[in-house]
Amino acid sequence: MILSLSLAGVVSGVASLFGISFASPLIWAAVLFGCAWIISARAPGRYFLHGFLVGVFSSVWLTLIHAYYFFDMARAGIVEVQPYGLSPQAVNVIAGFAIALVGGTITGCLAMFGARLLLKSHAAEPRTMQ
Question: How far is the C-alpha of 104 from the C-alpha of 110, rounded, in Å?
């Protein structure tokens, strides 16, 4: 489940290469909420851990796609060196690491919150006699 949900990072990474970056925050918000809902409904437990790993792996896929793209651009001479002498790939990896931690934490918290809501709604349902 973690791997399949994290593939949203691949879709987002490829989409951003084709110029859909203007809607990227909205897409990521929808992906985070969707993944958190699926995790809270289907995970066997440890909702935060599942959400955290989905967020981290999604960001890893996205960062790898962007790093490869920047590598191609740097090789062709399109991208120059960033401030402080860092390469664009290094800046991308550093930013990707930070985004992975933040995205994973947000997804984990949303999954944990969603699971608590689902557990409360299941507890509040009237029991039928069989």
Answer: 10
Q: Which residues contact 119 (CB under 8 A, 6 or more apart)?
A: none
pLDDT tens digits, residue range 47-72? 899 989 988 888 888 888 877 777 66
CB atoms within 10 A of CB 69: 18
SS3 of residue 102 by DSSP:
helix
Length of the chain in residues, anyone? 130
The residue behind tokens 């992906």 is 31
Side-chain-side CA neighbours of 21 within 13 Å: the count stands at: 7
- pTM of the entire predicted model: 0.73
Phi, psi of 7 (to 5 degrees): -65, -10
What pLDDT was estimated at residue 94?
Answer: 83
pLDDT of residue 129: 52
